[in-house]
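Escalated from tier 1: flavin mononucleotide holo job.
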Amino acid sequence: MLKTTANTEKLHNFSKVCEILDKFDRQPSKIIPILQAVQEEYRYLPEEIMTFVATSLGTSPARVFGIATFYSHFSLEPKGKYIIKVCDGTACHVKGSSGLVETIQRELNLSEKNHTTDDLLFTLETVSCLGACGLAPAVVINDKVYGQVSKQRMKELITEYKTMEA
Amino acid sequence: METAILEKIQEDFKNRKSCLSHRIVICAGTGCIANGAMDVHEALAKIIREKQLPLTLSLKEEIPPGEEDPILISKSGCQGFCQVGPLVTIEPENILYTKVKPEHARDIIERTILAGEVITELLYKEPQSGQSCKNHEEISFYKRQNRMVLKSCGDIDPEDINNYIYSGGYMAARDMVLNKSPQEVCDIVKEAGLRGRGGGGFSTGRKWDLALKQKSPDKYIICNGDEGDPGAFMDRSVMEGNPHSILEGMIIAAKACGGTEGQVYVRMEYPLAVRRIQKAIIEARKSHFLGENIFGSDFSFDIHVMEGAGAFVCGEASAMTESIMGRRGMPRVKPPRTAEQGLWGKPTVVNNVETLACVPLIIRMGADAFKKTGTTSSPGTKTFALTGHVANTGLIEVPFGTTLREIIFNIGGGVLNAKGEIDNNDFKAVQIGGPSGGCLIEKHLDIPLDFDSLKSVGAMVGSGGLVVMNKSTCMVQIARFFMKFTQSESCGKCVPCREGTRQILELIDDVAQGRGTQKTLTLLEELCETVQETSLCGLGKSAPSPVLSTLKQFREEWDAHIEMNCPTGNCKDLVSYTIAAESCKGCTACVRVCPAGAISGNRKEAHVIDEQKCIRCGACVETCRFDAISVGGRV
Ligand SMILES: Cc1cc2nc3c(=O)[nH]c(=O)nc-3n(C[C@H](O)[C@H](O)[C@H](O)COP(=O)(O)O)c2cc1C
Ligand code: SF4
Ligand code: FES
Ligand code: FES
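Tier 2 regenerated the structure:
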C-alpha cells in the first residue's frame, strides 16, 4: 500500500519535471534554469531526478552533478520548509551576524555540520550579501527580509514561525 | 510611428501629471519593503479611499471626469537611505518623511495632504545637530552627494516605462540607433573617458571598439548584474529602481559593436531585481525598443534574463559566459579576451550594471559635460555602499576624486563607537573594494578617490563597498573574513588559488588561535605574494589583498596576536573574561547562564571566572545587568 503511494507520487513528480523540461525546450544550455525550477518544486535536487534530467537532455549525469555541486544555490539534500538565510557579508559581519548564527544554532539545535532540523521545518544558511546592507545585520526567511536583527529579535522570529506551524 | 512616439508619451505624461494635486512616492526598494513600505502603501491608499478623495495608483489610468485633482501614490526604487526607511516623499510640497509606519498614514493624509501641515515627528533629524530636515536637499547625507546614475532611482516608477520615457528615457538610444554609425557611438563613449564600474576600470569605449572590429554575424552584450561582492548593493538598486536605464545602455552598446542579442545576468538572491528587469524587457519589446527593427530602423536586438545560481566567480567575464552556456562557471585563460571570443565563441561585451546605466546619461549630456565631474583619469561619479560603524549607512554617489574624509564624516555623519554613539576619534580603518580591495587608515583620508590613486595605495575601487570600522574591530578577523570568503568561492581550477587560499586561511587561524609565531607572518606574506602572482583569474590574483593590506597597516596588531593577545578582544582564544569586583552585585545571573560552570561566588558577593573552565561563549557578558564583566586581551 505504502509503496504504491510512493510510486504514484514519483510518477507525478516526473510529470512535473517534464513540464519544466518542456518549458525550456529541453535545451542542454538551459540546464541551470532547469535545475533552479526543479529545486523550486522539490526544495532540493533529488538524485533520481537529476539522472532523469541528464537523460532527457542527452547529457551525462556527471555533468548535471558537476553543475549541481558547483553552484551554492543548489542543494543535494532536502531542505527545511523555512530557509533562514543569515547574511554574513562584510556589513552584516561587522554588525554582528555571527552572533545570530550562534543564536539560531542554539535555538534550533543545529551545528556547523547539521543545517536542517530533524522535522524538516528549518534550514540555516549563511549567504554572502543580501543586498540590504543598509539594514545590517540582515536575515531572510524564505522571501521575507528582516533588517537590523538582534539576537533577541531572532529568537522571537523563530518562535513566531514555530507557532505558525503548531 | 516609432519616431514620434517618445515625444507623444512625454506630452501625455506631462498633461496627466499636471492634473495631479499631490504625488506621494513610497520607496519600494528591498530595504524599505523589509521595513514595511508595502503596509504603508496600503494604509495610505485605504485612508484616501475612506475619505473618498480621488486616488490613482498609476498615471496610465484614465482620470475620471470631474476628478481633475487626483492624488497619485507611486512606488520608487531604493533612495539609498534604507536605514531610516520606509521613506515617503510628498510632492509638490517636497517633504520627506522617514521611518513611516502604517499608523502614520492617517496623519499624513489629514495633516499634510489636506491641511498642508508638516509633521515634525516624521522628519529626519541630523544625528549630530539634532536639526530637523524637511527634504532630501536639507539632509547632509544627500546634500553632499552628486547623484547622476542614482538620481532617477527614487523618483521614477520602475515598473512604468512611460515614467522613464517622461524623464527623457530611450531618447539617447533612439538617437544612436537612427542617426549614428557604430564607430561614432564608440567614439563618444571613448571621448567621455567612461571606465568600467565593475571593478577593473577598463575603458568602456575601447572594449566596445575591440568587439566592433571582430567579424561575426552574431555578437553578444552581457549586463553583469551578479554583484557578488559582499557588502555591495548598488547594482541591485539600479536594477530595481531604474531597470530601463540598463536596457537603454545595452541597446546603445549593441549599436556600438553590432550586438545581436543581450543577456542580463542577475544573481538569484535578487528576486525583485529579476522581476523588475523582466517586466521592463516586456514593456520595451511592446514599445518596439527591443526586438526586430527597433525604433523603425533596420537594427534588431533583443535581451533575455539569466539568473545566477550563487557562485561569486561567475561575476568574472569568461566564467559568466560559461555559466550562461549551462556549464560550471570557471574562468579561462586570456587572451583571447571575451570581447573577441565569449559566449558561444562569439565576440561578447560584458559590462557592469552601473557602467551601462551611465551610458544613456553620457549620450544625453554629451562627453564634454560628463568629463566635467570626477578626475581627469576617472571621469564621472561612482556609487559606494557605505556601511559598518558609521552614523548614516546607505548607498551614495559622489564624483571620483571625493575624499574618504568627506564621505565618512560628512555624508556618513561620523564614526560610531562600540556603544553606537558618534565618536570620530574611534575611527580605525575603512575597507574599500571588498574581497579584492584593502584597508585604508587615517593618513589616507585625504587622498582623492579614483581608480589610479587607490591602486597606488594598495586598495581598489572594486565594486564600491566602503566598510567603516571603529576601534572595536579586530583586523586579523577582518583579514580572515575576506580570506574565508575567497577561499570558499575559489572555483578550484588552478592550484595557487585553490590550495594557496586554504593555506593562507590556516595560517591566519594559527595567528587567531594562538599558535602563530613571527615565522607564520613571514610565511603568510610570502604565500600571499605567490598566490597573487600565479593565479589565473582576478579572484585568485586579488584574494590576498585584504590580508597584505592589514599586515601592512596594522602590523602591531598582528604582532600582538603572536604574543597571545587580541587587543580588541575579538579572537576568542586570545581573550580572557574578568569580573570587576567593585561592579559585581553578586546577583548570580551569570552563574546560572554559564554553560561551563566556570563562574563561582556566593550571593551578594563578587563572583570570579575560572579561566581554565571558561569556553569564552560570552553568555555571561550578555546577561550581566551591571556591566561588571569585561572581555580583554590575555595580557
Ligand atoms: C572573481 C570576480 C568577480 C567579479 N564579479 C563582478 C560582479 O559581480 N559584477 C561586475 O560587474 N563585475 C565583476 N567582475 C569584473 C568582471 O570580470 C568584468 O571586468 C566587468 O563586469 C566588466 O564590466 P565593466 O567594464 O563595465 O566594469 C568580477 C571579476 C572577478 C575576477
Ligand atoms: S584564480 Fe581561483 S577562481 Fe580564478 S580560475 Fe584560478 S582557481 Fe578559479
Ligand atoms: S552585507 Fe549583509 S546585506 Fe549586504
Ligand atoms: S530601499 Fe528605500 S531607501 Fe533603500
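The two ends of chain A are 29 Å apart (CA to CA).
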